[in-house]
Structures
1.
Amino acid sequence: MQLGQQIRVVTRLAERAATLPAMVDWYARLADAMSARWQDATTPPPAAFPAFRSARDR
């Protein structure tokens, strides 16, 4: 589910930048649909890819 993590990172960054609202909405719905389809990939959530971890978790 690394793709789902990457989609959520992109949506968070775009939301913070207050840009690309249509893309953020579509990506958020895509990530939700992927999580609903492959529930075992998100429960428990997979470990974050190192590049996407916060600095305090490194």
2.
Amino acid sequence: MEFAVLLMVVIVLGLLGWGMYRLMKRRAASSPADAGQAEPHSLPLDDSTYRVSYAPPEFEWSGTTTGALPVKILTYKQYECLEDARYGFRIVGVPPTERKQPQPHKTRAHGLKTVASLKKHGFLEDDGEGGYLITDRGLNALEVCSVRY
């Protein structure tokens, strides 16, 4: 009987010790960031700082465009269109029923409204052959505008 009580006390103390260990470990992991005492390079970076681009260098924003952009938020369709243009595709505006139709090499079809909107804001420019290419302002929009899904 005494052995059973002693065993229960050891188990309870072990569980309490383990719980305290877990609690202290969790607090130690979060306290430097909460207190603002961590080194700037050791803070975890938010998702927006992780930019991996596979676009050719000529399709990266030059950093020279100045002035405020006409929009702060891109729709998902606008973002998708600008991304296609960024990766070197020629953009054509088509009615929704024709969007899934095969396109010539290095050409992507997007909705008429989407393309017209991006052209109106200066993010796309006419290539003289019925298609559109991304402008430096469009590359800037990809960098700074948020996306509404």
3.
Amino acid sequence: MIVVDKKKYKMAINEGAKEVHVQVHGLMREEDVEGYMIDLQDTINKVTRQEYTFVVDATHQTPVPSKVVPQLEQTMKFYSSLGFKDILVVKPSSKIAQVQIRNALERIVFAGTFVDKVPYSM
């Protein structure tokens, strides 16, 4: 069930699979972040986090400028702190974006998994 469907991102809750999916399209601009965070909080508050897997579908994410890479690390740290049972980050189609995310995950304590795809998508 899609909960949020905006131009830059989507959020869904799959109650059957006990997953919360977030998907970002392109590059998040600073002006998009506030709305994203509000929508994310509303979405994750609808589930019992300890029972759900958080799926970050980065398939459509584009490479970020080097000055934005620290925010990528902060975002992944934030996702790790949300208290979900597990976190899956789906690799972007872009090889450059894949390397950026993988490097960001290696620089932080990330308890989740970087995967090629997930069986359920939005």
4.
Amino acid sequence: MNHLFKSAKDTKDVSHSSTATLLTAQMFFGRNGETPYEVPEKFLSFGESLRPKEANDWQKLVLCLKNNMKMDGNPATGVDAGNRPYTFHRVYKSRATLGFKMINGGGMPQLIEDYQEGKILIGFTLDDLIEEAKKV
């Protein structure tokens, strides 16, 4: 039965993996041949569907990710009054915990999963994504 449990020294922390890719806005949309998180048209359409508070939460969460902040690995999920699925993410500052309700879409769920797994580092802001999505 001892083989079912691992000591803390046996676990590997990938939060600061040296193999993480610095993701740019161009890469988010697959402009350089990468698999896109979302296509520009759907990203912009999704953004237009957000209420001002929801768009503000997106902006703040992307900035937190760009600043390489630690996140809760077990976020709460639900469906809001508009029947849209969402995830409530917590991000940790040195003396505070921030919370963001993220309407699922726009490529964000996969982006957050890759960030949490240490596969990527964020090299853009929400404004950068919007600007890149508007390019032809």
